[in-house]
């Protein structure tokens, strides 16, 4: 197996991260401002002053969450400050609650 040079890995990483940001912004009608501390793929800062972890962005896109789920989570996050479960956990707990209500 041939090794990829670090500069190519960095370029690929940045490209993929920015593609996810583009999809996420289009889906949620957000405007991306910058990567916190200029670390691509870490924390994304949006025009609304929201700071969202890249892992949450990837989860939102890959799991095809409905638009309102992120909006509801961000609202809870603002209201409860640090006492909010991570987005990934939040989306799974919603799914579990919905499944329980269907039974």
* Unreliable spans: none
How would you describe the oligomerization state of the chains in this entry?
single chain
Q: What can be said about the biggest beta sheet?
A: 3 strands, antiparallel
Mean pLDDT: 88
For the termini, the CA-CA separation is 50 Å
The rough form would be described as globular
> Which structural class fits the helix and strand makeup?
mainly alpha
* Beta-strand fraction estimate: 5-15%
Share in helix: 55-70%
- Strand tally: 3
Explain what the structure shows.
The protein is mainly alpha-helical. It is built from four helices and three strands, in the order H-E-E-E-H-H-H. The protein has helices spanning 6-28, 54-62, 67-80, 87-102; strands at 32-35, 43-46, 51-53. A three-stranded antiparallel beta sheet has the order 1-2-3. Strand 2 (43-46) and strand 3 (51-53) form a beta hairpin. Helix 1 packs across helix 2.
Q: Topology of this protein?
A:
Layout: H1 6-28, E1 32-35, E2 43-46, E3 51-53, H2 54-62, H3 67-80, H4 87-102
Antiparallel strand pairs: 1-2, 2-3
Concise synopsis of the structure shown:
The chain is mainly alpha-helical. It has helices at residues 6-28, 54-62, 67-80, 87-102, and strands at 32-35, 43-46, 51-53.
List keywords for this structure.
103 residues; mainly alpha; three-stranded antiparallel sheet; 4 helices; 60% helix; 11% strand; globular
